[in-house]
Amino acid sequence: MNSLLLLVALILSSSFQDTHRKLKVSIYYEALCDDSKKFLLDQFYPAYSRIGSNLLVDLVPYGKATHELINGEWEFQCQHGLSECVGNRYQACGLALNKCQDKQIEYINCLMGSVNASSQNTLEKCASKLDVPAVDIMKCSQSRRGDQLLAKYGDQTHKVQPMITFVPTIIFNDSFDSDIQESSLKNFLETACDVLQNKPDGCQKKNFLNTPDETEIDDFLGSVKNDDKGELDHVSEDKERRSN
Ligand SMILES: *[C@@H]1O[C@H](CO)[C@@H](O)[C@H](O)[C@H]1NC(C)=O
Ligand SMILES: *[C@@H]1O[C@H](CO)[C@@H](O)[C@H](O)[C@H]1NC(C)=O
């Protein structure tokens, strides 16, 4: 019995130390914002798969919205319109319904990587990543609780100093730093590894090389432009096929 208690004490104290050794990363973003998508999908998610256990992630789905209590009801305006508020609510509610960080990241990555992060189909597809029934997330997002969660994220967003002007805004250990912000957008893994005191294996230099540098991005953009045309061709093919 005593040894069991000792074991419990050891586990508790080691997880306590872990929380203190972790780098807290807050991400202020919004559901329908291209820059948020790009950061979460191309920078954050791949880095998380390497050093996630060293990060304490604080996702804040609100961005450049506003909220106001009118006659006891929360009213929101979102930067990309009403459906963005729906998307932000799906995220706020999902994050509240399962606190497991790894599952949260899978869920958010699934939503942000979908064509429409505000659609019910997307929610149904992504809820399984969180192990929460989509209907529970939906209910929350249409209820007072959804409003309150979103308003709470709004208050947190509005407290940031200096005021957030760019979405996504990335903050380490609760204090905004414009160098961290800029370099996180370019290479999040390298930026996080830079400030982590005990470098995990995921911080090996060779991992940074996977991130495209400036010239590769230009090449990529060039190829996207060409691909765009390709995609349009596919669309018209699809239309033809459908009308046949
Ligand atoms: C995304 O889904 C929402 C909810 O169904 C809808 O209101 C919105 O128009 C959709 N957006 C696009 C770009 O299709
Ligand atoms: C944030 O805290 C972590 C853990 O204490 C530490 O390793 C890191 O250096 C800190 N980073 C910054 C930018 O303060």
TrEMBL record:
Pfam families, sorted: GILT
Signal sequence, start to end: 1-21
Domain of life: Eukaryota
Coiled coil: none
UniProt-recorded Gene Ontology molecular function terms: oxidoreductase activity, acting on a sulfur group of donors, disulfide as acceptor
Region (Disordered): 219-244
Family according to the record: Belongs to the GILT family.
Record protein name field: GILT-like protein 1
Biased composition (Basic and acidic residues): 225-244
Predominant cellular place of this UniProt entry's protein: secreted
A cellular-component GO term for this protein: extracellular region
UniProt-annotated location(s): Secreted
InterPro entries per record: Interferon-induced_GILT
Keywords associated with the record: Glycoprotein, Secreted, Signal
